[in-house]
Write a structure and sequence with these properties.
Elements (H helix, E strand, L loop, with lengths): L2 H6 L4 E6 L4 E4 L1 H6 L21 H7 L3 E6 L5 E10 L5 E9 H9 L2 H17 L2 E6 L4 E4 L2 H6 L13 H4 L7 H8 L3 E6 L5 E10 L5 E10 L3 H26 L11 H13 L6 E4 L6 H10 L8 E5 L8 H6 E2 L12 E2 L1 H4 L4 E5 L6 H13 L1 E2 L8 E2 L3 E6 L3 H6 L5 H7 L2 E4 L10 H16 L4 E2 L4 H6 L5 H15 L4 E2 L6 H4 L13 H19 L3 H8 L3 H11 L9
C-alpha cells in the first residue's frame, strides 16, 4: 500500500499548502470536513477561501500554531498547523485536523493533565468537606473521597451520572445543582440526607469566555452537630465584642461617649460598631437634642479615620449666599470681597476624615445637586477653579425632618435622599428610653461637678420627676438642667424644690412622690420600663428578648403592676 493511499485513509484530516495558500495535497477525511478542498485537484481555490486557517502565517514565521475552525456542518475542529521545507527552495505547511474527542483524548493522556488531575484530587480530598463538580448539563464529573462518608454513595456510582439521581433516589431531599442550573447564580442551601444528616451546601456556577455555564461546583459541609459549635462561637464572639467595646471606649473622647444602657441604644451601638470602619454614607434621624452629632462622632472615633479630621457643619445655620463657598471653598480672586489667597472648603478640609452635615434638610436645592455630584464622583471643584479635586471623605448626614415627605413636596432631591440613606440610624427620643435617664443624670452631674469644682449630689426624691417628665428637648435639655442645678445649688444635695417649675409641676409624678421609699421608686421605674416595652413590642417573647429576662418574669411583673399588653394606661 502506498503512503499516499495510507494517508488518505487516516481518521484525521491532512492538508498541505504552499506559501500562497495553494492546496497541494488533501486526504479523504479533510474533504469530508471541508467539501471545498475537493477542488484542490484542479487547483482552483486557495485555502483562504475554503476554511479559516493561519497556516500562511505559520509558513512565513516558521512557527507552528493551533487554532479552531468550524466545518461545513457546524462542528468545531482543531487545526494543528506545522511549517516545513520540501527542499531548500520550497516552503510548505501541513494542516492536521482533529475533532474535539481526539484532542480531549490526547490532552487527557498528557503528563501535564495527569499531574493537574492528581493535584486536584489531592486538594479536593484535603478540604474535608464534600465536593462535587458537574458539567453544564448537571452530569457529575468529579467527587472527592468524602462522598461515601457523607452521602453513603460510592464515587463510582455517582460519577458520569446526573446529579439529580441523588434526589430521585431519596439520598438527599433537594439538589443544589438543579437550583444553580435553573437560576444561573451562586446559591446557598441546606440539604438533609437519607440518614438524617444536615448539610450546608454552597454552589458556584462557572462560565466560559462566551458566557456559557460549563460547570457547577458544590461544597457541602456537615452541620448536623453545629448547634453546640454555634453556641460556642457566639459566646466567643460576645466575649470578643465585649472586650473590643471596652478597648474602644478607652479611646473615645470622654465628653462624646454616648450613654447606651437601654437595649434600644445598645442595638444602635452594635450597628455603629459594624459600620464604623466602612465608608458607606450614614443618615442619622431623630428629634432635636437626641445626640445625633454624638453618634456621628462615635462612628468617626471608632473608624480607621479617627486620627483624621472630623468636620461638622450645620446646614441651617449658614446663610444661603455663603454655603457654597463654605462647603466647596474658592480660588484666589474668585470673587470680590473674598480672601485674597482663596479659602479651603469644609469638604476638602475633611479629606481622609469625616464630614458631618447636620440639618441636611435645610440645604438649598441648588446645593443639593452639587453635593450629590460630590457623593457620586468623589471629587469637587472650588469656586473659580478650573480643575476638580479628588477627595476621600466619609459623609454622615443628620436631620430631625421627614426627608421622604420633603421629597414628595419637591423640597429635597430624591436621588440625593437615596444616596445619603445607604445606612440609616434612627435615634429614639429620651422618653422612649427612660432606662437611660438615671445614667445620663449621673454622667452630667459628674461632668459638671468636675468642670465647676463642685460636689453636689441628687436627692433620691428627685428621680421620679426626671423619669416622668417627657423631655421635649431630649438629652440636650436634660444636660442643660443638670448643669444649671450644679451651678446654682448651694447645698450638697439637689432636692425637688430646686428643680425647674416645668419638672416639679408636670402632671407625671403622683402627689407625695417625694415621700416614696427607694423600693417604691425602683418599682415605679421598673413599671415604666415594662410598660414602654409592652407598648413597643407585639408579643411577650419580643418584650422578654428586649429586656433580656424570661417570659415568665415579664408575665409575673406585668400582673404585679397591672399592665396589659397593648394598654396605654399606667
Amino acid at each position: 500500500m502506498q503512503f499516499a493511499d495510507l494517508f488518505s485513509r487516516l481518521p484525521i484530516g491532512l492538508v498541505v499548502v504552499d506559501l500562497h495558500g495553494n492546496v497541494h495535497y488533501v486526504n479523504d477525511k479533510s474533504i469530508q470536513l471541508f467539501a471545498g478542498l475537493a477542488s484542490q485537484k484542479s487547483n482552483k481555490k486557495p485555502i483562504q477561501e475554503i476554511m479559516t486557517s493561519t497556516i500562511i502565517k505559520s509558513i512565513k514565521t516558521e512557527k507552528p500554531n493551533v487554532c479552531i475552525t468550524t466545518t461545513d456542518d457546524g462542528h468545531s475542529v482543531y487545526l494543528l498547523e506545522i511549517p516545513f521545507e520540501a527542499d531548500h527552495l520550497t516552503k510548505l505547511g501541513l494542516i492536521i485536523m482533529l475533532d474535539a474527542e481526539q484532542v480531549e483524548y490526547l490532552i487527557s493522556h498528557s503528563k501535564t493533565y495527569l499531574d493537574l488531575s492528581q493535584d486536584l484530587d489531592t486538594i479536593m480530598n484535603l478540604v474535608g468537606d464534600l465536593v462535587t463538580i458537574t458539567d453544564g448539563n448537571g452530569i457529575v464529573l468529579r467527587v472527592n473521597a468524602a462522598c461515601e462518608k457523607v452521602m453513603g454513595v460510592k464515587e463510582s456510582d455517582f460519577v458520569g451520572r446526573p446529579a439529580t439521581i441523588l434526589e430521585e433516589q431519596g439520598i438527599i431531599d433537594h439538589s443544589s445543582t438543579v437550583n444553580v442550573l435553573r437560576s444561573g447564580v451562586r446559591g446557598i442551601m441546606t440539604q438533609t440526607t437519607r440518614s438524617g444528616r444536615r448539610l450546608l451546601v454552597s454552589s458556584f456556577p462557572l462560565y466560559n469566555d462566551l458566557g456559557d455555564l460549563v460547570k457547577v461546583v458544590n461544597i457541602s459541609r456537615d452541620i448536623t452537630e453545629r448547634e453546640e459549635l454555634l453556641d460556642q462561637i457566639e459566646e466567643l464572639r460576645n466575649t470578643i465584642r465585649h472586650y473590643q467595646m471596652e478597648i474602644d471606649r478607652l479611646n473615645w473622647a470622654n465628653a462624646d461617649t454616648p450613654i447606651m444602657k437601654s437595649q434600644i441604644m445598645q442595638d444602635i451601638m452594635d450597628l455603629i460598631f459594624r459600620i464604623a470602619d466602612v465608608d458607606s454614607t450614614v443618615l442619622i434621624l431623630g428629634e432635636t437634642g437626641v445626640g445625633k452629632e454624638v453618634i456621628a462622632r462615635t462612628i468617626h472615633n471608632l473608624s480607621s479615620r479617627k486620627d483624621k479630621p472630623f468636620i461638622a457643619i450645620n446646614c441651617g445655620s449658614i446663610p444661603e449666599s455663603l454655603i457654597e463657598s463654605e462647603l466647596f471653598g474658592y480660588e484666589r480672586g474668585a470673587f470680590t470681597g473674598g480672601n485674597r489667597e482663596g479659602k479651603l472648603g469644609l469638604i476638602a478640609a475633611a479629606n481622609n476624615g469625616t464630614l458631618f452635615l447636620d440639618e441636611i434638610g435645610e440645604l438649598p436645592l441648588h446645593m443639593q445637586a452639587k453635593l450629590l455630584r460630590v457623593l457620586q464622583e468623589k471629587q469637587l471643584r472650588p469656586i473659580g477653579a478650573v480643575k476638580e479635586i479628588k477627595i476621600n471623605v466619609r459623609f454622615i448626614a443628620a436631620t430631625n425632618i421627614n426627608l421622604e415627605e420633603m421629597v414628595k413636596q419637591g423640597l429635597f432631591r430624591e436621588d440625593l435622599f437615596y444616596r445619603l440613606n445607604v445606612i440609616s440610624i434612627v435615634v429614639p427620643s429620651l422618653k422612649e428610653r427612660p432606662e437611660d435617664i438615671p445614667y445620663l443624670m449621673e454622667y452630667f452631674l459628674s461632668l459638671y461637678n468636675q468642670k465647676y469644682g463642685r460636689k453636689v449630689q441628687f436627692h433620691p426624691d428627685v428621680m421620679p420627676y426626671f423619669l416622668t417628665y417627657p423631655w421635649p428637648g431630649n438629652i440636650r435639655e436634660l444636660q442643660n438642667i443638670v448643669e444649671r442645678l450644679v451651678v446654682t445649688c448651694s447645698e450638697p444635695l439637689i432636692r425637688p424644690e430646686r428643680l425647674p417649675d416645668k419638672l416639679r409641676h408636670y402632671d407625671g409624678p403622683e402627689e407625695g412622690a417625694a415621700n416614696k421609699s427607694l423600693k417604691e421608686l425602683v418599682e415605679e421605674f421598673e413599671r415604666n420600663i415594662i410598660h414602654n416595652a409592652m407598648q413597643r413590642y407585639k408579643t411577650m417573647k419580643e418584650v422578654s428578648e428586649h429586656l433580656k429576662v424570661d417570659v415568665s418574669t415579664i408575665s409575673r411583673k406585668a400582673r404585679k403592676y397591672g399592665i396589659r399588653h397593648g394598654s396605654s394606661n399606667l
